[in-house]
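Page 42, continued from yesterday. The earlier attempt failed because a stray header line got pasted into the input along with the sequence. Redoing it now with the clean sequence only.
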Amino acid sequence: MYLIPTETKLANRTATLVRNANLPGIGWRRGNLIKSRNGRFKPGWMVYNGQEVEALQGVFQIRTYEGDRVKYTSVGDDLDAAQAMLEKLNATRQMEVAKAILGIAGPEPEKKRNTLAELVQKYIDKKKSPSQGLGYASIHLYEATLNGFLALVKRQYVTDVTEEDVTRFADHLKRQGFSQKGRLMRYTVIRGFLRHSGVDVEKVIEAATHKRLAAKPDLHTDPYTEMQLEKLFSICTPYYKVVFTLLLSTGMRFREASHLTWDNVLWNEGKINVPGSQRVTNRGRVVEFQTKTRRGRKVPMFASLKTTLQEWRKQNPDTIYVVGTLRGDHPNNHWLDALKHFAREAGLNCGVCDSCTLRNECEKFYLHRFRHTFAHRCLRSGRGIHTVSKDLGHHDLSITSIYLSGSSDENGKDPFAGAA
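This time it went through. C-alpha cells are written below.
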C-alpha cells in the first residue's frame, strides 16, 4: 500500500483530496487517502499520525490554499463524485492560469451555488468563531451532527434535503443508541442549520413529524439502585472503580471528571474545584477544557471519596490527571464503553431496550446517571436543595427540583459511605 496525495500543483497552489472522518475514541480528524498498487483506493481507510486507520464515518474534502491560508471544502461521502469535483476544480484553475498567461479576459463568472457540504462547513466555521462564545462540547456537537448528517443523506444541495432525510437521520441516531435527549439536541442542530441556509423548515418538515422529533424527554431521572451499584462495583477494575466512585460521589459531568487534575483536589478544604476553563500541557500535548456553562464551582469531597482518592494518589504519585488514561495520562474518552461492558458482564442489561437488542449494550447504563444518583442521594440525606443545585452547577433551581423525592431524615450523613 502507499499514500496517494490525490493532488495537482498549479503555480504555488495545490488542490488535494483528503478524508475528514470521525475516528473511534479520537473524534473528527483529517488524513490522506490510501491507494493500492493496482490503482484502487482502500475503502473506508485513511492515514492519521502516520498509521492506517479505519474511517467509515466521514466525508471527503478538497484542500486548497489562499495564500498561506488553508481551506477545506467538503464534497460529500461519494468517492467518485469527490474525484470528479477535484478534477473539475483542477481543470477550471488550469484554464484560468492559461487565460491569464494569454491575456484573455473571461466572461463574468456566474454566481456560485454552494453545495450542501460547503454550507455545512461554513456553518461549522461560524460556530467555531470566538464571537459565538461556544465551548468545546457545543462545537463538537455541531461538527459531529452536521458531518454525520451530510455523510448519511448524500445530497448535493440544501434544497434537495427532504423530510425523509431528517427522519432517516433521527432513526440512525436511535439505532446508534442515542438517548431521546441526545436525538433532540441533534435534531435541533439540523433544523437550525436548514433554517440558516434558507430552507423553509415548516414546509419541508410536517408539523406532526416535527412534534415527534422535537418531543422533550421525560424529566424523571431514575438513580442507580443499591443492587445495580453493588454488582457494578464488584466486577469493574480498580481503575474504573475509582472513576465510577468519583462520578457517583461528586455529581460531576463526564468531561469535568475526565479532565480533573490533582491540583484541583483541595484536600484541606474537603472540596474539589471544577474550573470554568482549563489548559493543561502534558508530554507536549495541550488539552483545553471548558465546563458546560464556562463557570467554575466547588463540589464536596465526602469522607468516603477522600479516602478513595488518597489511596489512588499513593498508587499514582506522578500523574497530572486524577483518572487519566493509564498509558499517557490524558483525559479518557472510553468510560461509557467500559460502563456498558461492565453492566453486561454483571448481568445488569435489561434485555428489552433497542440497544440491548442491537448491540447488547443497555441504554439504562450511561455516565450521566451517576449525576442523577448523586443528586437523589444528597437530597435524601438532607442536603439542602440550594446547596445541591450549586454542587451540580445548575443555573436554575427548578432543574434541581426534578430530583426531589423521598424523605430527608438522615441529615448530616455521608450519602456515599459504603457505596463502593
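Notes: The longest helix spans residues 79-102.
Reminder to self: strip header lines before submitting.
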